[in-house]
Amino acid sequence: MSNVALVLERQALLTNTGSIEVATHFARAGDREKTIEWLRRGVELRNPSMSNVVNLLMFDLVRDDPRFQALRAQLAN
């Protein structure tokens, strides 16, 4: 697992920010669960960038996951 992702995760938990950056680092580290968790957090925090982020190639790791598809559907509404 990426040490950078873990550091960013701790910081994001303290500040309620950085969900996209954390999700990106976990995706690069190949951690499907943490990637979904942080993408979901971005949606819950109503991050305005989320609708564009879910289309990025770096999230191909989780694209076939039903939870990711549900997040995309939620953003479309």
Low-pLDDT regions: none
Can you give the mean pLDDT?
Answer: 85
For this structure, the quaternary state is: single chain
Question: What characteristic shape results from the CA principal axes?
Answer: globular
- Approximate helicity band: 55-70%
Describe this structure in words.
Helix content is 68%, strand content 0%. With 77 residues, the protein is mainly alpha-helical. The chain has one domain. Helix 1 packs antiparallel against helix 2 and helix 2 packs antiparallel against helix 3. It is globular, with a radius of gyration of 11 Å. The protein starts with a helix and ends with a helix. The mean pLDDT is 85.
Write the topology of this structure.
Layout: H1 3-15, H2 19-29, H3 32-44, H4 50-53, H5 66-76
Write a concise synopsis of the structure shown.
The protein has 77 residues and is mostly helical. The protein contains five helices and no strands.
